[in-house]
From TrEMBL:
Protein name as catalogued: ABC transporter permease
Keyword Cell membrane applies: yes
Keyword Transmembrane helix: yes
Membrane topology of the entry: Multi-pass membrane protein
Principal subcellular localization: membrane
Record's compositionally biased regions (Polar residues): 1-10
Keyword annotations: Cell membrane, Membrane, Transmembrane, Transmembrane helix
TM region positions: 32-53, 65-86, 93-113, 125-146, 158-177, 197-219, 302-323, 329-350
Location in or out of the cell: Cell membrane
Length: 356
């Protein structure tokens, strides 16, 4: 016996709406709707704008692109390290001091092993560079360990703890360097690493991109990343399900410190000397890059790709203002304004997430 379904036009429309509502969003549409994609679009727009405003389009020249990539290398390392820590609710104000102290210790080690001979050559240069790299990374990791112990085990507020270590680290760096920049490190450091390029890409920038890629994989596909986000979402809940939160926070602080040490070594390789006065705004730039890229200040969400495009935004903005003749004083205003905008967007996202 044949039966005919009796469906009204209204029912058909309702069924169609239900089908559309449950249909998964295509991956390409999800990608276009992310904060990172919006920041990338802004990066491209600013790059085109500053190219048009600069004389003969010099902003888009290969030399300037290489300078932008080098300028963003250290900032990217600090931003992705901070993004990982923010994912678990740790805020680190001492990254710039860590970078400076690591570079000073690394420079001292290199100068101790290899001093220039009368003919201008550097004996034991390779050993000096490797020892300097190790000294920078170890110094950064120890600095991060101290921060982690203060925050994770002594339960000192992260802002207060890292503000204190910022002052201590900066002071120790001045003591070791006698308040002046240390120069005379082996020239091979610049020639074979700091200023070396593969095509248009500087080798230090390639290192930073490899680190960012590794952390992206870590946060997306590993238990370490899952635990980081779990702690940032709810410290007490993560503790109840068996995640050893203090130990994990310590690991994150060590990771962030070690990346600051790598940034300190790259700073040495870039300039051939320390730059103890040139990193007072590093923490500001790192926070701006991480937060505007989509990492939540309250924890529970990390965007490594967003931190990459956020770093590019800060570098393009600062360099572009210089090239078009805007005073360097306005750079701080611009970066500060971008940070406030980033935090405002972060708060709106957090409120909306809590409401749902």
């Amino acid at each position: 016996m044949n039966t005919v379904a009796n469906t009204s036009p209204a029912a058909s429309r309702e069924s169609a709406v239900d089908t559309r509502a449950t249909r998964p969003t295509p991956w390409w549409r999800q990608a276009l709707l992310t904060r990172a994609t919006a920041i990338l679009a802004l990066d491209i727009a600013l790059f085109v704008l500053f190219t048009a405003l600069s004389d003969n389009g010099v902003f888009a020249s290969s030399d300037n692109v290489q300078a932008l990539l080098l300028a963003g290398t250290e900032a990217l390392l600090l931003a992705v390290g901070l993004a990982m820590m923010l994912g678990a609710g740790i805020f680190d104000l001492s990254l710039g001091a860590n970078l400076v102290l690591s570079s000073v210790v690394g420079a001292r080690v290199m100068l101790h092993i290899s001093t220039p001979a009368a003919d201008g050559t550097y004996p034991h240069a390779a050993a000096a560079v490797l020892a300097g790299l190790l000294a920078c990374v170890v110094t950064g990791a120890v600095f991060g360990t101290i921060n982690g112990l203060l925050v994770a085990y002594l339960r000192i507020n992260a802002l207060i703890a890292t503000l204190g270590t910022l002052g201590i680290g900066t002071g120790i760096g001045y003591v070791i360097s006698n308040g002046t920049d240390l120069s005379g490190v082996p020239t091979q450091l610049q020639e074979n690493f700091g200023l070396r390029t593969i095509g248009v890409l500087p080798v230090p920038a390639l290192v930073a991109l490899v680190v960012a890629t590794a952390l992206y994989v870590c946060i997306r596909y590993t238990r370490f990343g899952m635990r980081t986000l779990a702690i940032g979402s709810s410290f007490s809940a993560a503790d109840r399900v068996g995640i050893k939160a203090p130990r994990h926070l310590l690991k994150l602080a060590i990771l962030g410190g070690a990346l600051a040490g790598v940034a300190g070594f790259i700073d040495l390789s870039h300039f051939g000397s320390t730059a103890i006065q040139g990193h007072s705004n590093d923490a500001l730039n790192a926070v701006t890059a991480a937060v505007i890229g989509g990492t939540m200040l309250e924890g529970g969400k990390v965007s490594i790709i967003g931190a990459l495009w956020g770093t590019a935004l800060a570098v393009i903005l600062q360099s572009g203002l210089v090239i078009v003749g805007v005073s360097s004083y306005y750079q701080l205003i611009a970066v500060g304004g971008v940070l406030i905008l980033a935090v405002a967007l972060d708060r709106l996202t957090y409120i909306r997430r809590r409401a749902t």
